[in-house]
Amino acid sequence: MKLSLEEKRILLGLNITYYRRAKNLTQLQLAEKVSVSGNYISQVERGFKSVSLATLAQISETLGVEERDLLDFSRKKRD
Length: 79
Fold this sequence. Notes:
mainly alpha, 5 helices
Protein backbone atom coordinates (compact mmCIF):
# COMPACT_ATOMS: atom_id res chain seq x y z
CA MET A 1 0.00 0.00 0.00
CA LYS A 2 1.33 3.40 -0.96
CA LEU A 3 1.54 5.95 1.85
CA SER A 4 0.26 9.48 1.43
CA LEU A 5 2.52 12.45 2.12
CA GLU A 6 0.61 13.11 5.34
CA GLU A 7 1.12 9.51 6.49
CA LYS A 8 4.84 9.76 5.70
CA ARG A 9 5.14 12.99 7.73
CA ILE A 10 3.41 11.33 10.69
CA LEU A 11 5.61 8.22 10.52
CA LEU A 12 8.76 10.34 10.18
CA GLY A 13 7.69 12.25 13.27
CA LEU A 14 7.13 9.03 15.19
CA ASN A 15 10.59 7.81 14.20
CA ILE A 16 12.22 11.06 15.28
CA THR A 17 10.38 10.85 18.60
CA TYR A 18 11.47 7.23 19.06
CA TYR A 19 15.16 7.95 18.49
CA ARG A 20 15.08 11.23 20.45
CA ARG A 21 13.64 9.45 23.48
CA ALA A 22 16.18 6.64 23.08
CA LYS A 23 18.89 9.31 23.41
CA ASN A 24 17.11 10.80 26.44
CA LEU A 25 16.78 14.18 24.73
CA THR A 26 13.90 16.60 25.13
CA GLN A 27 12.42 18.30 22.10
CA LEU A 28 14.11 21.52 23.19
CA GLN A 29 17.52 19.85 23.53
CA LEU A 30 17.21 18.34 20.06
CA ALA A 31 16.06 21.67 18.66
CA GLU A 32 19.05 23.49 20.15
CA LYS A 33 21.48 20.94 18.70
CA VAL A 34 19.86 21.23 15.26
CA SER A 35 19.48 25.04 15.44
CA VAL A 36 15.71 25.10 15.09
CA SER A 37 12.96 26.00 17.56
CA GLY A 38 11.41 23.58 20.02
CA ASN A 39 8.05 24.37 18.45
CA TYR A 40 9.38 23.28 15.06
CA ILE A 41 10.55 19.91 16.45
CA SER A 42 7.17 19.48 18.14
CA GLN A 43 5.36 20.12 14.86
CA VAL A 44 7.64 17.75 12.95
CA GLU A 45 7.15 14.99 15.51
CA ARG A 46 3.38 15.39 15.28
CA GLY A 47 3.46 15.32 11.47
CA PHE A 48 2.37 18.93 11.01
CA LYS A 49 5.61 20.13 9.37
CA SER A 50 7.87 18.68 6.72
CA VAL A 51 11.64 18.78 7.09
CA SER A 52 14.25 19.73 4.51
CA LEU A 53 16.95 17.23 3.62
CA ALA A 54 19.50 19.43 5.39
CA THR A 55 17.46 19.42 8.60
CA LEU A 56 16.82 15.68 8.31
CA ALA A 57 20.58 15.15 8.01
CA GLN A 58 21.23 17.31 11.09
CA ILE A 59 18.58 15.48 13.10
CA SER A 60 19.92 12.06 12.12
CA GLU A 61 23.49 13.08 12.97
CA THR A 62 22.40 14.45 16.35
CA LEU A 63 20.46 11.27 17.12
CA GLY A 64 23.30 9.04 15.95
CA VAL A 65 21.28 7.26 13.28
CA GLU A 66 21.28 7.16 9.49
CA GLU A 67 18.72 9.17 7.55
CA ARG A 68 17.34 5.88 6.27
CA ASP A 69 16.52 4.88 9.86
CA LEU A 70 14.32 7.96 10.20
CA LEU A 71 12.70 7.16 6.85
CA ASP A 72 12.06 3.50 7.70
CA PHE A 73 8.28 3.41 7.94
CA SER A 74 7.98 -0.26 8.90
CA ARG A 75 6.17 -0.87 12.18
CA LYS A 76 8.99 -2.69 13.98
CA LYS A 77 9.96 0.25 16.23
CA ARG A 78 6.45 1.28 17.14
CA ASP A 79 5.01 -2.13 18.03
